[in-house]
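Please complete every field before forwarding. Incomplete forms are returned to the sender.

SECTION A: IDENTIFIERS
Entry label: holo-451
Bound molecule: adenosine-5'-triphosphate
Molecule representation: SMILES string

SECTION B: INPUTS
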Amino acid sequence: MNHILVVDDEATIRESLEGILREEGYAVTTTPSGEEAVVLLRDAPYDVLLLDILLPDRDGLDVLNDTRSLAAENQPEVVVISGHGSIETAVRATKLGAFDFLEKPLLLERTLIVVKNAVEARRLRNENLEYKRQLALETTVTGDSVSAKAIRQQIKLMAPTNGRVLIYGESGSGKELIARAIHAESPRHDRVFVELNCAAIPEDFIESELFGYRNSAIPGGPPEKRGTFERADGGTLFLDEVGDMSLKTQARVLRALDEQSFVPVGATQPIRVDARVIAATNKDLEEETAKGNFREDLFYRLNVMPFFVPPLRERKEDIRPLAREFLRSFGREYGRPHIEIAEDAVELLKQYPWPGNVRELKNILERVLILNPQIKRIERRHLPMLVHRRRDNHGDDFSTLQQAREAYEREYILKKIDECQGNMSRAAESLGLERSHMYRKMRTLGINVRE
Ligand SMILES: Nc1ncnc2c1ncn2[C@@H]1O[C@H](COP(=O)(O)OP(=O)(O)OP(=O)(O)O)[C@@H](O)[C@H]1O
Ligand SMILES: [Mg+2]
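SECTION C: PREDICTED COMPLEX
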């Protein structure tokens, strides 16, 4: 429900506005005082502020000004009410950012229209803020580690150039995010960012995928199609999973990069394209080149500026800020702001090796939020078994057989409990143990039953 704050020292005006606005389905709060209005605005967000400009205790324009110091998403649209003859002040108010003004005596029809427009304007403004925030988020590399700082630094250095960048990193480590960040900070930022998943180009349609076609090259198909390279003109072309291209595709891509032009299927004239190329791979391309899976000439074309993204397990200081950032954004998405994470839960997250890197962390936190719809704070026990299980298990370097056996037993028991969704009787049964025996075993192995 949209909430409207009415500030006017005349009781009759407050009452009549309150009446007609309630009737229209708005929630209404009224006050005769500018001072109190400011307090109310700090307390809770209002969509629209109907503000008399001549108040006994404060200048209406000052109150208007005060609304500017509220957080952007809490700023109401301000509609100024001016007494007869003070129309110039009202005009000044609109110059100061008021949405519109109403002149006394208030006309019912016009008042309702202005309020409705103000509510709509405020909705659009907030929607816009939200989009901008999402866009900004998608290209922000979060993290406190030395590596994260180096990544941000390197993005800054590479962004202004037109040089080709080849980003290396494990799956989910943030390669695409980095490519988008380079684009967002580059002079091409207001042009397109076109993504091509090289692993998924259909072998039979390479040409038309990449370069498009004209004059319905495909019988009965649409008359023309713009290829990926063509669409990227003026912007950035992101070649994702470039290490998974077939040799046939590699040959075509190489030629297009070399000539910076191509002829769409069925066309007669070549098209020149100016696109900045950023590629990404989770393979060791040098090794692939040595094995003959990747063309050497293409490798050197793409590898002008190599960019290495370390896996998350090598930059564990990033886990806390990343977790907080993801909780903030999921919290907003699910209408659950202010979700926190306990310090010992963060510590547990730091002990997990994160084979799926940042994406895995993000997915796990989203899952925790969905599975625990009530919580405001994520504790250790809310984290999935997977994360608990890897604790204290430092690979295979055990010093005694006893240690190795215990680690294995712990892992095995936890896996069974996980499979039985925490049902201890069923877990004991599938382990072939008495329930009480299983509990004893768990205690000796240091498995916390509650977790
Ligand atoms: N440093 C970071 N700060 C904030 N979000 C990040 C960071 N790194 C990765 N992410 C997020 O993690 C997810 C995975 O990142 P991204 O898609 O860029 O990985 P990738 O390396 O391209 O993975 P893949 O190899 O599987 O394609 C995305 O949602 C991304 O926004
Ligand atoms: Mg990717």
